[in-house]
Amino acid sequence: MEPAPGPQEKYHLITRNLQEVLGEDKLMAILKERELKIYWGTATTGKPHVAYFVPMSKIADFLKAGCEVTILFADLHAYLDNMKAPWELLELRTCYYENVIKAMLESIGVPLEKLKFVRGTDYQLSKEYTLDVYRLSSVVTQHDAKKAGAEVVKQVEHPLLSGLLYPGLQALDEEYLKVDAQFGGVDQRKIFTFAEKYLPSLGYAKRIHLMNPMVPGLTGSKMSSSEEDSKIDLLDRKEDVKKKLRKAFCEPGNVENNGILSFIKHVLFPLKSEFVILREEKWGGNKTYTEYEALEKEFAEQVVHPGDLKNSVEVALNKLLDPIREKFNSPELKKLTQAAYPKAKPAEKPTKNSEPENTVVPSQLDMRVGKVISVEKHPDADSLYVEKIDVGEPEPRTVVSGLVPFVPKEQLQDSLVVLLCNMKPKAMRGVESQGMVLCASSVEEPRQVELLEPPAGCCAGERVYVEGYEDDEPEAELKPKKKIFEKLQADFRVSEDCVAQWKQRNFLTKLGTVSCKSLKGGSIG
């Protein structure tokens, strides 16, 4: 029987491969006295993918260090985050998560009896917890709540109150789970510092926070449940794993944003303390690495070929996935998977005429390319411009925009813009505005604003439409009471390629996509 690790060895196990630790001194002080109590939470939204092996691997480390570990299935959080999990699917998805996370832990040899599993709704609907939510809401500013959730909660121009509650509930979980520390990805950092700031105001202790780096997906960006090509699903068939790994970004010698290398570093090495590169004898035969740094160095020097790296990861990954696939091959779990994540029924493209009366579609908006002919400061408002914009009509339209703090006059002059043309004309400080210039905005302070830019070569008056919605005629005028634009705007977003989108469908003209200069992930309005 191996001797129990000492405080220093426990500290090393707990913190290895982490990107950041907040509260290192407190962590060491606790380890000298007793075992650390820690929790990891996961909102039960999209289907977990192979990147979830990264926190699972750290949970294995925590158990080796003697920690008391709680896993929280944050079902209520999943609903609060812009309803990523609809209420009617919440119980099913939480059940799916519980089964798949336990299957993952078993596949890497973690004894489940040493873990405590909790659902958020087990305690988050209690009288005491609810009262603390109200107490917290009386001291937290709207600015701090929005900032805390900026990396985690889906950001929209008009955020729902539920998304602003999210960081506060996550902070309170630390107290109600009676832990010393919370573990999560570095994308949670703003929520962690929010908790450190506000929990003491309720008389609760400040906790330790342990943060994993964000592992790049197969495309080189963050691995995401909503981006099919960036991730491998835990139930993907072997042929699908092979296909996705073959397409994965793995440039020879490039160790930056390399999802294949990151998976080896954060999952495979900690589990086995070694990694074997499999290759034919004519290329040097198999080679075992006992230190990740040696493998990364030889890949950087192009001693290890990307093809061999991918093939070796494929073999190791399938060994982890095989027991999960086998468990979910049972009739009960097949049925659960289908119920929790029902496939969308194929249907004809919705139009404003085929949808129920309260449904809105982007073809209802009359968006056109506009050419800015003149720009003047509003005579009675320092923050407003009055522009004359040609949209292909006999006379240019007068438009009032609050762009003075963000866009220089000379940049706006003669530029091509996207103008929403069927809003009801509105007097703004005595000048009637006959449209709205659409812009991208950052979701964090300080606020940045950029014009949406049609492709070069577009003509004034040319239609701007959302992909798949080019055939229907727009409304003659948007009725303010129906809030058609506001409902559609909630799903406007700037993609990682700076392309304007609605529900991940591009804004287009006949010459190509509409974009902004740099505000990735920004809102549009």
Task: List the main descriptive attributes of the protein structure presented here.
525 residues; alpha+beta; Rossmann fold; Tyrosyl-Transfer RNA Synthetase; OB fold (Dihydrolipoamide Acetyltransferase, E2P); 3 domains; 10-stranded antiparallel β-sheet; 6-stranded mixed β-sheet; tRNA binding; tRNA-binding; Tyrosine-tRNA_ligase_regulator
Q: What does the secondary structure layout of this molecule look like, with pairings?
A:
Layout: H1 7-15, E1 20-22, H2 24-33, E2 37-43, H3 53-64, E3 68-74, H4 75-80, H5 87-107, E4 115-119, H6 127-137, H7 142-148, H8 161-176, E5 181-185, H9 189-198, E6 208-212, H10 238-247, H11 259-272, E7 275-277, E8 287-289, H12 292-300, H13 306-327, H14 331-340, E9 367-378, E10 381-390, E11 397-401, H15 409-412, E12 416-420, E13 426-428, E14 431-433, E15 436-437, E16 439-441, E17 449-451, E18 463-466, H16 484-489, E19 492-494, E20 500-502, E21 505-509, E22 512-513, E23 523-524
Parallel strand pairs: 2-3, 2-5, 3-4, 5-6
Antiparallel strand pairs: 1-6, 7-8, 9-10, 9-12, 9-18, 10-11, 12-15, 13-14, 16-17, 16-23, 18-21, 19-20, 20-21, 21-22
Helix pairs in contact: 1-2, 3-11, 5-13, 5-14, 6-8, 7-8, 7-9, 8-9, 10-13, 11-13
What is the gist of this entry?
Residues 339-359 are annotated as: Disordered. The protein is an alpha+beta fold.
Overview of the molecule:
- The protein has 525 residues and is α+β, with helices and mostly antiparallel strands.
- It folds into 3 domains: 7-212, HUPs (Rossmann fold, 3-Layer(aba) Sandwich); 238-340, Tyrosyl-Transfer RNA Synthetase, CATH 1.10.240; 362-524, Beta Barrel (OB fold (Dihydrolipoamide Acetyltransferase, E2P)), CATH 2.40.50.
- It has 16 helices and 23 strands.
- It has helices spanning 7-15, 24-33, 53-64, 75-80, 87-107, 127-137, 142-148, 161-176, 189-198, 238-247, 259-272, 292-300, 306-327, 331-340, 409-412, 484-489; strands at 20-22, 37-43, 68-74, 115-119, 181-185, 208-212, 275-277, 287-289, 367-378, 381-390, 397-401, 416-420, 426-428, 431-433, 436-437, 439-441, 449-451, 463-466, 492-494, 500-502, 505-509, 512-513, 523-524.
- Strands 9, 10, 11, 12, 15, 18, 19, 20, 21 and 22 form a 10-stranded antiparallel beta sheet that branches. The protein has a 6-stranded mixed beta sheet with strand order 1-6-5-2-3-4. The protein has a 3-stranded antiparallel beta sheet with strand order 17-16-23, with no helix packed on it.
- A hairpin with a 2-residue loop joins strand 9 and strand 10 (381-390).
- Helix 6 (127-137) packs across helix 8 (161-176).
- It is globular and about 85 Å long.
